[in-house]
Structures are given as structure tokens and as C-alpha cells.
Design a protein that fits this description.
It contains nine helices and seven strands. The protein is α/β, with parallel strands linked by helices. Helix 1 runs parallel beside helix 2 (41-57), helix 1 packs across helix 9 and helix 4 runs parallel beside helix 5.
Length: 262
């Protein structure tokens, strides 16, 4: 299926590895030009080179700009928009806050979680969606978490910050100014994916990775963890010309783990 995205520009946050990298790669394979953002310059360079090489090997013509910055800070966002001001696609993504016990978290810990997982995505949308509306095309995909649907006890910081973003998006996505101008905003909720994030969460919780992975897979009907590539494919479809009537949704990609109907 031709997603109709060739020549568009996308800003993909946290795109040097994991799910952000999967989204950047899938979009590049469709001929989308990228602004790839991550904090670690060396890791970002390597990831961007790989994305560009893979896309070229598939016959896709794409430009890849690299911005090593912390997207959760004003200076980081300024650096991103200095590299490219107008984008057609925005994929927000930030590493989730650490697990733990809420009794140990002070105000500053909460503010850091909110900055990264709620306020930064809102600032990025504020900077881009009106331009998208003026041009008659825009796609925003926020990578959140399956914990928005089914909270995880040790991930209270993530549960709180991402749920707050979900509530904000529910209102913004349904405004006539955006939805009526072919600008959609959706949230992608990953379940268990085979990424460094999953390994770090289990390590920080003091659990043996192999044993905990086997235990978690018991709750996944698919019987495996997801891959960044298949997550990226879902993201690319949400960004496509075929998804213009889909907005304000929270889309689970979790191998069937969530047991509810809504």
C-alpha cells in the first residue's frame, strides 16, 4: 500500500533507538524526510545513518537531519526548530521515567516526569499543529504506554504523566480547527516490546530479566514481545493519507495483552 507520504517532513523524537527508531525507519522507507532527535549524538548519528541506508536500499529518496538535543527542554526544542521549522508529521516520544515507590518521589521528580512525558509533547504540538492546519495536512502520533489503559504499580510517574497527556489530546484532537483541516492526533500505546527500556525497567525493579520476561509473556496472547519494526509500521499507517478519518484515539499495540473492550 502506498501511504502517500513521499516528500513529507517528519520530526521524530527519541529516534536513536527502540520504538522511536522503529517509527523513523518506517517513515523513511516511505520516502519521508526526517528530523531525528535524541540526546546522545554518537548513538543518533549511527541510527540516522542506518535509517538512511535502509531507506535508500528500498529505493526511497529521503533526507535525514540529526539534532542531538533534549526535547524536554526549551533549548532542545529551539535547536530542533532551528534545523527545520515546518513539519507535516510529529512523533513525540520520550524515555519513560524510572519505576519505584511514590513515597520516594519528591516534587522535582514529578516535574521531570511531567516535563518529558506531558509538557514537552504539548509544546511540540503547540509549535506545529497550526502550521499543519494551514497547509491542509498534519499527523501527530504520541508514543505513550499501555499503562494508560492498565496502570502498572511500579510505574506511577509514567501512569500519571502519560494519562495527563492522554486527557489533553482527547480534547485537542477533536477541535474543528484541526480535525476539519486534515490534522489528526492519536496516541500509540505500546505493550511489551523487545527494547532496552523493557530490560532497564526490569533491572531497576531488581528482577532477573529471563525469569521476568517469561512471566510477562504468560499474559501476552501473541506469546512474544513486539519488535520496533512492527510498531513503526503502525505509526507509519497512522501518519498516512489513508488515516485522515482516525483521530483522538488510543491505539494499543500489545499482542492482545489488554483484556478490556475499551
Amino acid at each position: 500500500m502506498d501511504l502517500g507520504l513521499a516528500g513529507r517532513w517528519a520530526l521524530v523524537c527519541g529516534s536513536s533507538r527502540g520504538l522511536g527508531w522503529g517509527c523513523a525507519s518506517a517513515l523513511a522507507n516511505e520516502g519521508v524526510n526526517l528530523v531525528m532527535v535524541a540526546r546522545n549524538a554518537a548513538t543518533l548519528e549511527q541510527a540516522a545513518d542506518q535509517v538512511a541506508m535502509t531507506a535508500a536500499g528500498r529505493g526511497a529518496s529521503t533526507k535525514v537531519l540529526r539534532v542531538a538535543a533534549d526535547i524536554a527542554t526549551p533549548d532542545g526544542r529551539a535547536a530542533v526548530f532551528a534545523a527545520r521549522r515546518e513539519v507535516d508529521i510529529l512523533v513525540t516520544n520520550a524515555g519513560g521515567p524510572p519505576p519505584g515507590d511514590f513515597r520516594d518521589w519528591d516534587r522535582n521528580t514529578w516535574l521531570q516526569a511531567l516535563d518529558a512525558n506531558m509538557l514537552a509533547p504539548i509544546e511540540l504540538m503547540k509549535a506545529t499543529v497550526d502550521g499543519m492546519a494551514a497547509r491542509g495536512f498534519g499527523r501527530v502520533v504520541n508514543i505513550t504506554s499501555s499503562a494508560v489503559k492498565a496502570p502498572i504499580d511500579i510505574l506511577g510517574l509514567s501512569n500519571g504523566a502519560r494519562s495527563a497527556l492522554t486527557g489533553f489530546v482527547a480534547g485537542l484532537a477533536r477541535t474543528r480547527k484541526l480535525a476539519g483541516a486534515n490534522v489528526t492526533i492519536n496516541n500509540l500505546l505500546p505493550g511489551g516490546f523487545d527494547t532496552g527500556r523493557l530490560q532497564r525497567v526490569m533491572a531497576q525493579a531488581g528482577k532477573n530479566y529471563e525469569e521476568e520476561a517469561a512471566s510477562r509473556l504468560q499474559a501476552v496472547p501473541a506469546g512474544r514481545f513486539g519488535t520496533p519494526g512492527e510498531f513503526g509500521a503502525v505509526c507509519a499507517f497512522l501518519c498516512s493519507v489513508h488515516a485522515g478519518y482516525l483521530t483522538g484515539q488510543n491505539i494499543l499495540v500489545d499482542g492482545g495483552a489488554y483484556p478490556g473492550t475499551h
